[in-house]
Amino acid sequence: MINGFKYISIIISTRNSEKYIEKCLTSALTQDYPYFDVVFLDAQSTDKTFELAKNFETKYSNLRCFKNDIRKYQGENIRIGVEMSNPGSICCHLDGDDWYPHNMVLQRVNSEYNKTNCWMTYGTYTEYFGENIPLKDASWHYHEYPLDVCQNKTYRQHSWLASHLRTHYRELFLNIDQEDMKDPKTKNYVSFAPDLSFQFPMLEMCPVDKSRYIPDILYVYNRETENNESKQNQSEIDRIEKMLRNKTPYKTIESLW
């Protein structure tokens, strides 16, 4: 930490997001925050996503761009990005076809960690449906997990609340067994709902007061993109979600370091 600012790594994982990647990266790289970097991981895009991202490297020294040699799913890319981040840093997630709504997002995240000494945060977002369509506030659907859920570690039985903006300490994520992020059917990282594969374990590992809900809207979730899960194979999404919800909960840990 320097002058109250914790180091933050923004981790972007995406595939075929050329229509939105410049908006995404601009929102990340122009944050009004003195102490952060951006790790961009491309999952074998077949369009110009990676080339457009690489153009930003010439302007921003705190951006690192990588493209997979073989196709990897988002959960694996995110894990790679977390491993690349500096020890002790806060990891802040951003999909390549989404963006931050303003340049004070990292300031708000840092203030929450300083104020509450938390290990992870989750929140709410606005939804983008296309140009000239007003953003839709999704905060009506999201709120803090009830205290009894946190105490009894019944996150997997509760309705899903741990959504964007998602942040956590690097070390909390690295306590997750990689096998718990994989699909036993395919032996690969899950192809859908990767956020469930790491958010559930981190919530369970946190003592009651170490996971925090931030009510401020700090994320724009793109519903227009073809990468949106709502436009994908719903039966496969349901199968994977059921599998992840049926996993054994993690035990609470007392310290990250």
Give me the Rg, rounded. 17 Å
Largest sheet: 8 strands, mixed
Helix content: 25-40%
Q: Which structural class is indicated by helix and strand composition?
A: alpha/beta
Q: Would you mind describing this structure in some detail?
A:
Strand 5 (120-128) and strand 6 (136-137) form a beta hairpin. With 257 residues, the protein is α/β, with parallel strands linked by helices. The chain has helices spanning 21-29, 49-57, 74-84, 105-116, 147-152, 170-173, 194-205, 234-245; strands at residues 8-14, 36-42, 63-67, 90-95, 120-128, 136-137, 163-169, 211-222. It is built from eight helices and eight strands, in the order E-H-E-H-E-H-E-H-E-E-H-E-H-H-E-H. It starts with 7 loop residues before the first strand and ends in a 12-residue tail after the last helix. Strands 1, 2, 3, 4, 5, 6, 7 and 8 form an eight-stranded mixed sheet that branches. 29% of the residues lie in helices and 21% in strands.
Sum up the structure in keywords:
257 residues, alpha/beta, 29% helix, globular
How does the SSE layout of this entry go?
Elements (H helix, E strand, L loop, with lengths): L7 E7 L6 H9 L6 E7 L6 H9 L5 E5 L6 H11 L5 E6 L9 H12 L3 E9 L7 E2 L9 H6 L10 E7 H4 L20 H12 L5 E12 L11 H12 L12
Parallel strand pairs: 1-2, 1-4, 2-3, 5-8
Antiparallel strand pairs: 4-7, 5-6, 5-7
